[in-house]
């Protein structure tokens, strides 16, 4: 079941003189090379932007963290929604398999379990495709610049590099993507950093946006 995601969940990076700086996670949403990620992962500039081609086919193999080789595919920004923090990228590849359906948090209840595929800590040079589980703790509406959107709070502590991870419904008989991980809730004011860690982020309240907005962007609407 999960082998599909070894080929469709990818690391987003930017090519620099010293190598590839990994920025976060993205996942394939069309067979002709459209990838969804968060806007804060890529910003507004696609100069030297790239997607790192998948390295494994079997999720059960031991992933060699000492192997830092990669195959990069140049990526361009296709569309950005800054208010919902969504970016669509375009790369030159074709995937011949069947992709999961993009759905919504409307289809899953609070307390149900989700599967998460992403690359936690890839921003620190650790490229390991990781599967995790978390329950939906709440459904919420967040507002940005007077634009309201549906989110879910999931009961896990997000780590750098996981932004753009897909959320898979585990209660559905079919493979359905219901959301995308945005990041941890960060209370405003009084933030400090201890060895690069903000204690305000050490909690299990991670915000994820409903996949219906990615679907709407693909269909040309918001």
Question: Helices, strands, pairings?
Answer:
Blueprint: H1 3-8, E1 9-16, E2 19-28, E3 34-38, H2 39-42, E4 49-52, E5 72-81, E6 86-91, E7 101-102, E8 113-118, E9 130-144, E10 147-154, E11 166-169, E12 176-184, E13 206-210, H3 212-218
Parallel strand pairs: 7-12
Antiparallel strand pairs: 1-2, 1-4, 2-3, 3-6, 4-5, 5-6, 8-9, 8-11, 9-10, 10-13, 11-12, 12-13
Give a verbal description of the structure.
The chain has 222 residues and is mainly β. The protein contains 3 helices and 13 strands; from the N terminus they run αβββαββββββββββα. The protein has helices at 3-8, 39-42, 212-218; strands at 9-16, 19-28, 34-38, 49-52, 72-81, 86-91, 101-102, 113-118, 130-144, 147-154, 166-169, 176-184, 206-210. The strands form 2 sheets. A 6-stranded antiparallel beta barrel has the order 1-2-3-6-5-4. It has a 6-stranded antiparallel β-barrel with strand order 8-9-10-13-12-11. A hairpin with a 6-residue loop joins strand 11 and strand 12 (176-184). The longest helix is centred in the C-terminal third of the chain and has 7 residues, at 212-218. It is globular and about 40 Å long. 36% of the residues are buried. The model has no long low-confidence stretch (mean pLDDT 89).
């Amino acid at each position: 079941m999960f082998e599909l995601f070894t080929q469709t969940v990818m690391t987003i990076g930017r090519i620099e003189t010293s190598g590839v700086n990994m920025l976060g996670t993205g996942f394939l949403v069309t067979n002709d090379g459209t990838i969804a990620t968060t806007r804060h992962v890529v910003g507004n500039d696609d100069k030297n932007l790239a997607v790192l081609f998948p390295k494994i086919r079997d999720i059960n193999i031991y992933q060699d963290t000492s192997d830092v080789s990669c195959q990069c595919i140049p990526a361009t920004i296709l569309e950005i929604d800054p208010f919902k923090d969504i970016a669509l990228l375009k790369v030159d590849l074709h995937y011949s398999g069947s992709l999961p359906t993009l759905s919504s948090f409307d289809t899953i209840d609070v307390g149900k379990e989700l599967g998460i595929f992403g690359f936690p800590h890839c921003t620190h040079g650790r490229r390991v495709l990781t599967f995790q589980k978390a329950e939906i703790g709440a459904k919420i509406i967040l507002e940005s610049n007077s634009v309201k959107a549906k989110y879910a709070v999931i009961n896990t502590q997000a780590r750098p590099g996981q932004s753009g991870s897909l959320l898979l419904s585990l209660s559905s008989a079919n493979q359905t993507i219901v959301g995308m991980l945005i990041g941890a809730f960060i209370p405003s004011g009084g933030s400090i950093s201890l060895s690069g860690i903000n204690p305000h982020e050490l909690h299990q309240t991670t915000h994820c946006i409903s996949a219906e907005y990615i679907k709407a962007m693909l269909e040309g609407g918001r």
